[in-house]
């Protein structure tokens, strides 16, 4: 039972790690893109003034 369950548990853990990692990477990319847009917008507004 334990021998047969451990590979399944490892598979689930690896799957969760991959999903969480991809979600975190997407969130970081989106936050960086939003920050870049905010910076460019602020620069454009300051230049406009």
What does it look like?
The chain has a domain at 21-49. 96% of the residues lie in helices and 0% in strands. With 49 residues, the chain is mostly helical. This is Na(+)-translocating NADH-quinone reductase subunit C.
Keywords:
49 residues
Proportion of residues in helical segments: over 70%
**Mean of all residue-level pLDDT scores:** 77
Query: Which residues form runs of ≥5 with pLDDT under 50?
Result: none
Please trace the helix and strand order, writing H or E for each element. Answer: H
Write down the Rg.
Answer: 21 Å
Organism: Shinella sedimenti
Protein name: Na(+)-translocating NADH-quinone reductase subunit C
Architecture blueprint of SSEs:
Elements: H1 2-48
Protein name: Na(+)-translocating NADH-quinone reductase subunit C
Summarize the structure.
This is Na(+)-translocating NADH-quinone reductase subunit C. With 49 residues, the protein is mainly α. Helices cover 96% and strands 0% of the residues.
